[in-house]
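pasting for ref
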Amino acid sequence: MKKSLLITIDGPAGSGKTTTSRMLADRLGYRYIDTGALYRSVAVEVQRTGTSPDDDDGLKRLCSTLSIKFVTGEKGLRILSQGSDITDQIRASEISMLASAVSARPVVRKYLLNLQREMGRGKGAVFEGRDMGTVVFPDADVKFFLNAFLKVRARRRYLELASTSSQTLAKVEKDMQRRDENDSSRSLAPLKPARDAIIIDSSELSADKVVERMLSFIEDRLHPSNPDLAK
């Protein structure tokens, strides 16, 4: 696969986006960009500075001073904010809910929209998020929307957090359902598949199977049997 593509993978929490996005990027030799981590990073700084998620002026001032970077080290891909490694912090449940609130503010979305588009220059990247194919990269070469049943997604997230959190499965599911509702019902960049997205239900699929399915679609886009599909 020589042609460099820009690929987006959207979907709700627990659908397997992070795992499959990393694996797909690795298989293609592409950069992997976790855009959810960018919003969570802003949420960490909102919490740290005591900025209200409803204070647009305060959020604008905060965003103007932020320095968020992805770096690869001995522990793999890490995210730095203001020079500090916050990779583990951003997965806390309170940061997840705060990120959902912060991501609904136009001033934050504008700041990160510019940052994400700059990261996408030159293509050769897999962008994971919630509005990658609908808002950030509407002209992406290939768009996926990954989903799974709520109970399946909640159990995945519960097992992921088991070593660092005392939350019950019921609490994880309740929080996830609330975030789903918040993200899907907001007026600004709601969580939904792009009209031309390839929708994959991962409820009963392993990450390997999902990636293989994605690769088959990508191969068809690169070498279509029907030339009209390449347009």
